[in-house]
Write a structure and sequence with these properties.
Layout: H1 8-24, H2 37-41, H3 50-63, H4 67-70, H5 82-95, H6 97-113, H7 116-138, E1 142-143, E2 146-147, H8 150-168, H9 170-191, H10 196-204
Antiparallel strand pairs: 1-2
């Protein structure tokens, strides 16, 4: 008796096809550009892409100063006056901005890893955004007569995960990261002596 359900090899082929759709769906991106199935459904906002982020990180890595010289204790001393302090801070921030950026990212990563509740809160936010975004791809999400854009979806996901962030002490974590960053970077920039070539550039700059 004929049946609409696939049998035997046909069933396996059908399941393989569905599995393939998860990773090769051509209409995953709402712009119709295609992508990598489920991963493509989590497309980034317009004007930003993973390649741009990678390019930004690569540029930072290329401009980073050697860490051995960055932490060389022989290059640290107390500034003689407030003017020299300001000169050091301005010039060192310019010279070591890439190093400082990675220190900031490292402090953020340490804060997240050392706080299990914060990890859970981030997972809740990512999961909420993922579900909301998938629903918006299936059919337009409209609230109060307005379609939810990607920023709106992220805001909704943030609202859903807000209680978890509150329980995780996210506010205190943010202040800790900012305070630790300002202390580490400010101390280094203030006490790190300028190289001879850097002093020459500083003196040659027009006033």
């Amino acid at each position: 008796m004929p049946s609409g359900a696939p049998k035997g090899e046909n069933c396996l082929v059908d399941m393989d096809g569905k599995a393939g759709d998860l990773f090769t769906a051509s209409d995953a991106h709402p712009t119709g550009t295609g992508g990598a199935g489920v991963l493509a459904k989590l497309w980034l906002p317009k004007g930003f892409s993973a390649s741009m982020a990678k390019e930004w990180i690569d540029k930072r890595r290329m401009s980073i100063r050697p860490w051995a010289g960055f932490v060389d204790q022989r290059k640290f001393s107390k500034p003689r006056n407030f003017g020299e302090l300001c000169q050091r801070v301005v010039k060192n921030v310019e010279i070591y901005n890439s190093n400082y950026t990675f220190i900031f990212l490292g402090l953020i990563l340490y804060c997240i890893i050392s706080s299990p509740m914060l990890l859970i809160a981030l997972a809740v936010f990512a999961g909420a955004f993922y579900i909301i975004h998938l629903k918006s791809l299936e059919s337009k999400l409209v609230i109060l007569g307005k379609e939810l854009t990607v920023p709106h979806q992220m805001s909704l996901a943030g609202a859903v995960s807000l209680p978890v962030f509150w329980l995780a002490g996210a506010g205190a974590a943010v202040f800790w990261v900012l305070g630790a960053t300002l202390f580490v970077i400010g101390s280094h920039a203030a006490f790190r002596e300028l190289e001879g070539s850097d002093m020459e550039e500083l003196l040659m700059e027009p006033v």
